[in-house]
Amino acid sequence: MTHPTALPQQAALDAIDRAHLIHPVSPWRVHEQRGPTVLASGKGAWLTDGNGHRLLDAFAGLWCVNVGYGQESVVQAATEQMRRLPYATGYFHFSSEPAIRLAEKLVQITPASLTRVYLTLGGSEAVDAAVRFVVQYYNATGRPSKKQFISLERGYHGSSSTGAGLTALPAFHRGFDLPLPTQHYIASPYAYRHEHGDDPQALIASSVAALRAKVAELGADNVAAFFCEPIQGSGGVVVPPKGWLTAMRDAARELDILFVVDEVITGFGRTGPMFACEAEGVEPDLMTMAKGLTAGYVPMGATMMSEKVYAGIADGAPEGAAIGHGATYSAHPVGAAVALEVLRLYEEGGILANGQRGAAHFAAGLDGLLDHPLVGDSRHRGLLGALELVSDKASKRRFDASLGLSDRIFAAGYRNGLVFRSFGDHILGFAPALTFTEDEFAQLFARLRKTLDEVLEAPDVRAAL
Ligand code: PMP
């Protein structure tokens, strides 16, 4: 159904979208029925849709527009680079100044273990590259039996043909013949629904024990790597206790498996420091990143690795032979120029610090909704957070999926000029731009409470409580 007040041009776009455009991670036939929500412009934390409706974006696009919309200096950096040199391949030893400067900058701002940078087009490609590099590393260093990968239940690592198998969400496996026989999972440190959820040390110990047990089951000589997000994003914003990442890193080292941290969401100030690893001084063997790297202005991601992994691969290949991984747009100069300007805005433009100041308002706003009859849990770190909806707070019982609660909350939020995100039917996610002002946080939580109150008014929702 086209929006009732849709302008004629919007109706035409709507029809073309339904007929031809396949949307990412969407129910295709449902989308044909429902049609798109066309966004037209953005400024700061605010979006305007094709019908002129203004929205406060509490999800920074898809947890990526960390610097807000309409940053002129980023537009200028892209324009200047396009004018000077819109494209340079990295093949045949060619390079470009922005790619070189970005590599240097990333080495400076990431954990000290990471000294080598491979620039990609986004997060899925960064994860895919990390998997290929890990496989290459063990083959090159004479341990070809190490081929098994372990990740976390509820984890998200993109949708490439191997990355989607490290992802442990059913929609990414169903019909795609995943996971691969080499992909295995251990329990998520999901405190709200974990038997040790009230005891951070016990929760950490249980994750470490699960990793050890899985490695023992598969055989230490067969396990290549453990992949994790420092805070699980698409799995419903699962915030592990402080110290969890360190404990997992230590366990991986002791078990002689590579420790790969996926900072696609948590990087670039999302959780407070530039990277979530930094908060605990964790030094991974490989790290993936994207999203906040270019703040969504153009596509770019990166896979970084330690000198040990780099040297293993570099020295293991036959002398002079190419290591066959790369793409036409690897280290794209426009992406790199945008990333350099976005990184400048985080640091010299004060955006990282603004995000750190905003975290207290964000935390207070989310926790302030714990008194709402629909809300069972509030969890957050930095500007990454979620509310979990329950029909009974004591038993943590979920609402029946047939109520379509999260869709209704999303629709009501939209009418109230607010966008966020839902996970399944019971988790609402929030990731505002790091530029949010105190007033914008106040508007976010006022609109959110109004939205939850409106949904609570519905007789079937009341009856489910
Ligand atoms: N890893 C993580 C942790 C992610 O959150 C995402 C995207 N949400 C990806 C990988 C994949 O990134 P992209 O969507 O840019 O391919």
Automatic annotation (TrEMBL):
The keyword Transmembrane does not apply. Pfam families: Aminotran_3. Its cofactor is pyridoxal 5'-phosphate. GO terms for molecular function: pyridoxal phosphate binding; transaminase activity. Keywords: Aminotransferase, Pyridoxal phosphate, Transferase. The keyword Repeat does not apply. It comes from the Bacteria. PANTHER family: AMINOTRANSFERASE (PTHR43094), AMINOTRANSFERASE CLASS-III (PTHR43094:SF1). Belongs to the class-III pyridoxal-phosphate-dependent aminotransferase family. This is Aspartate aminotransferase family protein. It comes from Variovorax gossypii.
